[in-house]
Amino acid sequence: MLKQADSIHWHYSCITGCKLYGVHVTDQKQNIRILILEQDTEFRNSLSRLLRRRGFDVFQTAAFEETGEYGKKRQPALILFGFEKPTSENLEKVRGLMTRFPATPIILITTFDRNELGDDIKNRAHIHILNKPVKKDHLIQTLESLTLHNARD
């Protein structure tokens, strides 16, 4: 149950012509912005709920194209990108995120091995890989350590 004091704001965004919508939810306890890019709606919503409960400012989308629009308005402190297979399309999306957000940590949530990534991706300091299934405590610990580390820089 949402309380008025939680300062929850909903923002629906969509690039012209797209059919997938991003949902932006804020709980102004921490103001640490996290961008979730995940095709699986159920998993994406679960991640978003978990992070909101922890006080993170969350923008979630299934559409890679929306990340650019979001980035023009707000700089995320961290990006969660979930994908199953290291297809050339998904690897190009990772490279696109690295270009759009060069100093932002990117956590790849996936089922494949690190060796299946290109060298430019796996050797990047800001890329972190969590294998599915991801334990909630491990995810939160990783997020908090990365966002606290970036806040000090």
Describe the secondary structure blueprint for this structure:
Elements: E1 9-13, E2 22-26, E3 33-38, H1 41-53, E4 57-61, H2 65-73, E5 78-82, H3 88-100, E6 106-110, H4 119-122, E7 127-131, H5 136-152
Parallel strand pairs: 3-4, 3-5, 5-6, 6-7
Antiparallel strand pairs: 1-2, 2-4
Organism: Caldithrix abyssi
Pfam families: Response_reg
Protein name: Response regulator
Q: How would you summarize this macromolecular structure in one to three sentences?
A:
Helix content is 37%, strand content 24%.
Structural description of this entry:
The chain has 153 residues and is α/β, with parallel strands linked by helices. It has a single domain, classed as 3-Layer(aba) Sandwich (Rossmann fold), CATH 3.40.50.2300. It is 37% helix and 24% strand. The chain contains five helices and seven strands, in the order E-E-E-H-E-H-E-H-E-H-E-H. The chain has a seven-stranded mixed β-sheet with strand order 1-2-4-3-5-6-7, sandwiched between helices. The longest helix is centred in the last third of the chain and has 17 residues, at 136-152. It is globular and about 35 Å long. Keywords: Phosphoprotein. Residues 33-147 form the Response regulatory domain.
